[in-house]
Design a protein that fits this description.
With 179 residues, the protein is mainly β. The chain has 2 helices and 11 strands, in the order ββββββαββαβββ. The chain has helices at residues 85-89, 118-127; strands spanning 21-25, 28-40, 46-48, 56-61, 76-77, 81-82, 95-98, 103-108, 130-143, 169-172, 175-178. It has a 5-stranded mixed beta sheet. Strands 1-2-9-5 form a 4-stranded antiparallel beta sheet, with no helix packed on it. β6 (81-82), α1 (85-89) and β7 (95-98) form a beta-alpha-beta unit. The longest helix has 10 residues, at 118-127.
Length: 179
């Protein structure tokens, strides 16, 4: 006999990033945020290092503060390789780095439109929005809407909640099974 399949979707308020989890916290279904994310689009306040060399410029912004990110961890980025503060300081490669007090990007000057300074970099970012994912200094829990994931089963039917990342209860008639 054909069965009825029912799915329930849980909508998050923000993306589930690598390192984040869905878990029960204080009896509530929550999104555990270990990672943060920012999209850099040129609208940020950027400054350029004064000691730059001609092949690579270094820019930094205080859009993120070290209170927000875990200092000395490598960020994940869709446009630049992750770099350490040393990579950034030594002009060794194009990279994004989390310095002690700012987020920094080192970029080859040949990638920048004229004028090659801060305005050229902001224009480049506006044409190439850059997503940076970083480890939060203080992870936190975000409540997912209080939802009742109730499914119906027929007499003699079965209900399966296998492969769930979320702890669940299965209730049949007056029998309560906790898994």
């Amino acid at each position: 006999e054909n069965g009825v399949i029912s799915n329930e979707f849980i909508y998050l308020n923000s993306p589930l990033l690598k390192g984040d989890r869905i878990e029960m916290y204080n009896g509530k279904l929550c999104h555990y945020h270990k990672m943060g994310m920012v999209v850099l689009d040129g609208s940020e306040d950027w400054e350029r290092e004064n000691s730059d060399i001609n092949i690579r410029y270094r820019f930094f912004t205080r859009k993120l503060s070290s209170k927000e990110y875990q200092y000395e961890t490598l960020p994940i980025c869709d446009t630049f390789n992750p770099g350490t503060a040393s990579d950034y300081s030594n002009y060794s490669k194009d990279c994004v780095a989390l310095a002690e007090t700012f987020l920094a990007i080192a970029i080859s000057t040949n990638k920048l439109p004229e004028p090659k300074g801060v305005e050229g970099f902001k224009q480049w970012l506006s044409e190439n929005p850059t997503t940076v994912v970083y480890e939060l200094a203080e992870p936190y829990y975000e409540l997912i809407d209080d939802i009742d994931l109730t499914f119906e089963s027929y007499n003699g039917g079965s209900l399966s909640a296998g492969n769930s990342a979320i702890p669940y209860l299965i209730k049949a008639d007056s029998l309560l099974i906790k898994t």
